[in-house]
Structures are given as C-alpha cells and as structure tokens.
Design brief:
It is built from 6 helices and no strands. It has 2 domains: 66 residues, lambda repressor-like DNA-binding domains (434 Repressor (Amino-terminal Domain)); 49 residues. The chain is mostly helical and 119 residues long.
C-alpha cells in the first residue's frame, strides 16, 4: 500500500500524527473523501495535492510517484531505532569486554599458581 498514492498519503498523514478526520478538516474535505484517497479509490485534485504536500512537508512528486522528499518523521523514527540498536550493541560489546577481562585474569591466576607449584 505504501507504494501507491493512497499509501503515501496515509504515510504522510501518520508522520504528521494526524487522524484521518483531522487531516480531512485541515484540507477542507470530508473524511470519506480522505479515506477514498488513502484506499486508492480516488485521487486528490491537483490543488488539494499541493495543499497536502505543503501541510505535510513532502514534495508533490513524492505523493504522486514516490520521487523526491517524503515525510521526515519516518526518517527520524528510523534514526532513533538505529541509535537504540547501536546502544544495545555497544552494551553487548562492553559486557563481552568485561567477561574477557575476567577470563584473562582467571587464566593469569591459574597460570601463576600452577607455574609456582612446579618450581
């Protein structure tokens, strides 16, 4: 659905954190009209498409065909997800380093103990 004009309209609306009714009011259309756009049963006229692009901060060409600038919130959400994942990986690495240091210390103690007993 995201690869259709209706899917992109829905994605832009969701990125703006608006309900269908709120978005429809903002553009001065009926909720049923907006739902028709999102469900690909109809397409907005050019003046509504331009208003929608301006209201959502996307390019009209993105709404029409997926070319150009889409919603920035989607990008920011993805960046946030990647940051959280990176933080988790960093914690895993720190934990592994601590375990490695512990094992090396135990090995050193073991080696020292057995080396001293043999002497």
């Amino acid at each position: 659905m995201a690869d259709t004009i209706g899917g992109r309209i829905a994605r832009a609306r969701e990125a703006a954190s608006l309900s269908v009714a709120q978005a429809a009011r903002r553009l001065g259309v009926k909720t049923a009209t907006w739902q028709g756009w999102e469900n690909d049963r109809a397409e907005p006229r050019s003046n509504k498409l331009l208003m929608m692009a301006g209201a959502f901060g996307v390019s009209p060409t993105w709404l029409l065909g997926g070319y150009g600038d889409g919603p920035t919130e989607v990008i920011e959400d993805e960046v946030q997800i990647l940051r959280q994942e990176l933080k988790s990986v960093a914690q895993d690495v720190a934990s592994a380093q601590a375990r490695l240091a512990s094992v090396l210390e135990r090995l050193e103690v073991f080696h020292t103990y057995h080396h001293v007993e043999r002497s």
